[in-house]
Design a protein that fits this description.
It is a single chain. Strands 2-3-4-5-6 form a five-stranded antiparallel sheet, with helices on both faces. Strands 1-7 form a two-stranded parallel ribbon. Helix content is about 25%, strand content about 30%. The radius of gyration is 16 Å and the shape is globular. The chain has about 180 residues and is α+β, with helices and mostly antiparallel strands. It has one domain: Alpha-Beta Complex (Peptide Deformylase). The protein has three helices and seven strands, in the order βαβββββααβ. It starts with a strand and ends with a strand.
Length: about 180
C-alpha cells in the first residue's frame, strides 16, 4: 500500500525515533509498504518518520541507480534500530534531495565512511562499514530517525534562500506527484 509522505513542518520529522522489537505490529507489511511508497515517489531511501511513525526503521534500495552505477544493483536493505558507531574519512560535499522536502536540492557535507550496527528485517544483527554514496544514503536516512533533515546541514545563507519554499510547504502549498501529508492539509 502506498502511504502518504510527511512533508517538512510535520512534527514527527523532528522527533528522535524509538527502537522497536521483533514483535512490532505488522512489521513485514510495514516494510513492504515503505518500499512501495518509496518506489512510487522515485526515491532510493525512506525512513519511518517520513510516513508518520517515530520508530528507528529505514529502507534503502539503490537498484534504480544501477544503470549508471552497476555496484548499486544489489543494495536493497532494511535498517532497524540502527546506530552509527563510527564516522571516518574525508568530509565530502554532494547535492542531496529528500522526499519530505520536495523541490529542494542542496549541497550537504557528510563523512565519507561509516560503521553502522543494525538489525535487518529478520532481526539479525549486523555490524558493517560503508563508504562513498552508500555511506551518504545511510547517513541521510539515519538523520531522519534522529529527527534531522538534510537542510539542517546547509549554511544560513542557503537556508534564507529556500525559506519561502519551506514556508509554503508548511502551509500545504506544494506540488508533488506522490501522496503527501503537509501540515496545512
Amino acid at each position: 500500500m502506498i502511504l502518504p509522505i510527511y512533508l517538512y513542518g510535520q512534527p514527527v520529522l523532528r522527533k528522535e525515533a524509538k527502537d522497536i522489537t521483533s514483535d512490532y505490529p505488522n512489521l513485514k507489511e510495514l516494510i513492504n509498504n515503505m518500499f512501495e511508497t518509496m518506489y512510487n515517489a522515485d526515491g532510493v531511501g525512506l525512513a519511518a518518520p517520513q510516513i508518520g511513525l517515530d520508530i528507528r526503521l529505514f529502507v534503502i534500495d539503490l537498484e534504480p541507480l544501477a544503470e549508471d552505477n552497476p555496484e548499486y544493483a544489489d543494495f536493497k536493505k532494511v535498517f532497524i534500530n540502527a546506530k552509527i558507531v563510527e564516522t571516518s574519512g574525508e568530509i565530502v560535499k554532494m547535492e542531496e534531495g529528500c522526499l519530505s522536502v520536495p523541490g529542494i536540492n542542496e549541497a550537504v557535507e557528510r563523512h565519507e565512511k561509516i560503521r553502522i550496527q543494525y538489525m535487518d528485517e529478520n532481526f539479525v544483527a549486523h555490524d558493517e562499514e560503508y563508504d562513498q554514496f552508500f555511506a551518504r544514503c545511510i547517513q541521510h536516512e539515519y538523520d531522519h530517525i534522529d529527527g534531522k533533515l538534510f537542510i539542517d546541514k546547509i549554511s544560513g545563507i542557503r537556508k534564507q534562500l529556500i525559506k519561502t519554499k519551506l514556508t509554503n510547504m508548511i502551509k500545504g502549498k506544494v506540488n508533488c506527484r506522490y501522496r503527501v501529508k503537509a501540515v496545512g492539509r
